[in-house]
Amino acid sequence: MLATRTAAQTVVVNSPTITTATAQTAVVPFGVCTTPAALASEEHSLVAVWIVPSRLGVAQLRTSHALVGYSTQPWTAAVSIGTLGTERYTELGLSSLVATNLTERLRVGVALNYIFARAYGFAAENLVTVNAQMVFALDSLTRIGIAGSNLLQYERAGSTRGSMGQLSIGAGRQILSSLWLDADLTLPLRSSSGLVFAVRWDAIELLSIRFAAATIPKSADVTVRLDALDGACILLGLHYHAALGMTSSLGVSYRW
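Given the sequence above, the corresponding structure tokens read:
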């Protein structure tokens, strides 16, 4: 199965992006299937679509993604779909997400992901995984969180190895009115641990920029959200992976 280990997910579940345990610095929805509790902070329903034009410099490995979420506080539910198709390889990912604010300080979220993959000449593969996240607000400026990817896996028809499990534990704090910081310890369940750092800067009222870096795998990215119109946003992402190279993501979202 074609996979990226950046967020411990197959390629159609998430775009290449670095996520954090609190998701406090996130400005785009590219990694929401890894951090589903982030949906609980949504006060509006939303729809987002984006593409990853190529992977490994190969245009045929283009993926398309869509997310639709409905919010009726304190609950938010969403569905996500990702697709990749070539003459010799097809991958389809479906995710169902639910998040809620259990208290004024505690939010939780769960994502159930199904991935179907078929390579020419090989048996189709089916994989089901569960992601979960919990975020607790220590005060109005500081949050701590824990997020687990691929905690439970079910494989059928030719799958010999699922996606790599990962546990992230971290904290986030608002430093200034326009500046947030996240720091995580990541614990991949099949390899060594690493660190993740992220900073979000609301440069102006309509523009938010996020920089992130991870030690395992060695990667870095920048994501940008531009509020173009009332409720409509332009989403941009550029991700660097030491082994997989540079990947971009382009999309739009709308909240109502």
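The chain has a mean pLDDT of 88. Try to locate this feature in the token string yourself.
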